[in-house]
Amino acid sequence: MAHITVHVHPRASRNALAVRDDTALEIWTTAPPVDGRANEAVIDFLANQLGVPRSAIRVATGASARTKVVEIAKLTPDELRARLINKPR
Prior knowledge:
The chain is α+β, with helices and mostly antiparallel strands. The chain has a single domain, classed as 2-Layer Sandwich (Conserved Hypothetical Protein Mth637, Chain: A), CATH 3.30.1200. Helices cover 27% and strands 34% of the residues. The protein has helices at 37-50, 77-86, and strands at 2-9, 16-21, 24-28, 57-61, 67-72. It has a five-stranded mixed beta sheet with strand order 2-3-1-5-4. Strand 2 (16-21) and strand 3 (24-28) form a beta hairpin. The termini are far apart.
């Protein structure tokens, strides 16, 4: 199981991902930070980017904050790192 810190920018003009370093991401999402919609958008976006099922991803901490820790059940930390580094943006 892998964990990564994600800093979320809700209400962005487009969905995008930037890798800060091995342990942190920045995600821009068009979803507003209302009723968990930004969290759901982050989960959808990460599932798509990492090629894992949506059910394998959950917000472990920071559900109501912009900085969250996201847990990916189907990947090891090394697999997560490799998929983020090798993924075209």
